[in-house]
Amino acid sequence: MASIDVCYSPELLHLYDLEGKAVVAVDILRATSTMVTAFAHGATDIFPVMELEECRAYAGQGCLTAAERNGIKAEDFDLGNSPFSYMNGVVQGRSVAITTTNGTRAIRLSEAAEEVVIGSFLNLQSVADHLRDLQLDVIVVCAGWKGKFNLEDTLFAGALADCLQQDFTFENDATLASLHLYQAAKADMFAFLKQSSHVRRLENLNIHEDIKYCLQHNLYDVLPVWRHDRLVDLAGVKKL
Amino acid sequence: MASIDVCYSPELLHLYDLEGKAVVAVDILRATSTMVTAFAHGATDIFPVMELEECRAYAGQGCLTAAERNGIKAEDFDLGNSPFSYMNGVVQGRSVAITTTNGTRAIRLSEAAEEVVIGSFLNLQSVADHLRDLQLDVIVVCAGWKGKFNLEDTLFAGALADCLQQDFTFENDATLASLHLYQAAKADMFAFLKQSSHVRRLENLNIHEDIKYCLQHNLYDVLPVWRHDRLVDLAGVKKL
């Protein structure tokens, strides 16, 4: 039986052997939630890049460009990191290049894996189904906040372990802790996260509605995966 | 009001500014529990060192030498890492040099802090009282297991946060998660930890009794702190 492990920060990734594994990259607030939303609203492919300048250069290839630093949209980019800004036809039929403080870093540092899947609560079931099909050992790579542990990515890891506990083994401490925390939080994740200074800092940036949106389960049947140099959606869109 | 934060691994320590802070170094299974036990049984000072050869050299200065790697006592040392081997007068009046897989590394990497305190469940109350007196910002440095997150050190961080929640602020995600996990586990920490493959691996080394021992709260009024080049006990021994 394949196994699930959780890496709480990109800063710990060197301790994990990604070869032959499936990585689920997660940055709930908000990079991976936003990418899933972009695909659900018609984006054709997404280029996650680490640096602002690299991202800007994609404009020359006809891409929309998106950038966030410290929770705020960076200047001179088409889009920021709020999922709502990717709705209403804005990204329909378009390629998007995106760079964020934490999420795009987690994705790009995971490229050595056999498969890299983009995870969020919004597409939790699609991710779980895909992992069941693959039957590879799974490592959930939490983006964290500037290298440190964060709760919302951990809750996602716990939710995924909860979905997969019949079909995968997980006896390592990080996965067990994630599952316990998800079980404590799932009745009201928003209230659970409200204690967090990190989440309150994001709330102060007027993204209260973003947070509520990003905690919804299974809104989209979208499955972004890394292929060659970009993310593409392996699934269709079930509902908008 | 001073604050508490938790660093889940020595591999994340570079993200924390230790200057002017109090670090509580913790390796519940078993380095810091064992050091507290050694002081409770009469050790005069402890030299925590990172390398086996460095540890061996302390024998020339009249120290007992203790070494553990991968859960097992290293060859040609006086002592291993089981707290029981430090009882019955063995360390009475002696200096001990010790190196372990995770714990001594966490201690030595924390030297930049204003104060470094050795924490374990065995001396939880003494540590909490000392931190209340100091009124410095606190960082709990979990030794983890070979750089990865572990549950038992996290439960200690949660127990300490629980003790100090009237007198310190903690809104960061790692401390909140630790407190939630401690609250879920505290009714039966041994049962909680039994799910962990890391703890089961230790159990297979016949340290079942060590684990139960190390989870006992407030057995000793011992307060090991770093001074210059060694650990000394700031408190007396309340009970043996």
Automatic annotation (TrEMBL), chains A, B:
It catalyses: (2R)-O-phospho-3-sulfolactate + H2O = (2R)-3-sulfolactate + phosphate. Keywords: Hydrolase, Magnesium. The keyword Ligase does not apply. The keyword Hydrolase applies. Its EC number is 3.1.3.71. It comes from the Bacteria. This is Probable 2-phosphosulfolactate phosphatase. It comes from Pontibacter saemangeumensis. The gene is comB.
